[in-house]
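thought: fold this chain, then report.
action: predict
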Amino acid sequence: MKTITQIFALLMLLSSCKSSPDPAKPGNNDTGSGLTYLALGDSYTIGESVSKEDRWPMQLAAALRENGVAVQEPYFIARTGWTTKDLLDGTQNYHPDKPYDVVSLLIGVNNQYQGRSIEEYRSQFHDLLVRSIGYAGGNAEKVFVLSIPDWGVTPFGESVRKRTAKEIDNFNKVAKEECDKEKILFINITDISRTALNDVSMVASDNLHFSAKMYRLWVNETIPAIKPKI
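observation:
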């Protein structure tokens, strides 16, 4: 049985923030040499319970450099607990000086967790895709989406594992359909996330989010898909 402390932590880590998200501040998105990279998302993108260097977008940028692609440190617009609506609000007033060379989007786990409708997700996710393309200067090839990982495989998700898997699959089906409409690359990392069921080293210390080791696997899946496009 989960302790009261565990349950409280779960609610804090997965539920949406009660206050309105802070809007991103406009500014110069070119801070050095190399490609500019905007990472949009929720707790997975901001790297809840891992160090900044271990966030998957940070690992991705480092891996691209190792592969001969100069990339600046990613600019993050992401927060634990954010739904698609929160991310739309968080980017509403963000107007960068220049288009980004790379834009990633990973969002939807909190829509699923909060029991929000698939129809709402489809509409808001599509709006985020359009906004992402705008951040990439109108070039959809510079945008890619990661599928929603399955938190049900973590110790916190044990009691709702089957339901969570089914619902996340449904949300990912919608995300893939919307990406196909906009000709945006959709990368499936959900199956990879499910390997954490039999490997505790893939789970972060909070027993809910994923570890740097898991994020590295996502990066390994992403590199060959995006490198030819950037």
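thought: worth noting. The beta strands are 37-41, 75-78, 102-106, 143-146, 185-187.
final: tokens above.
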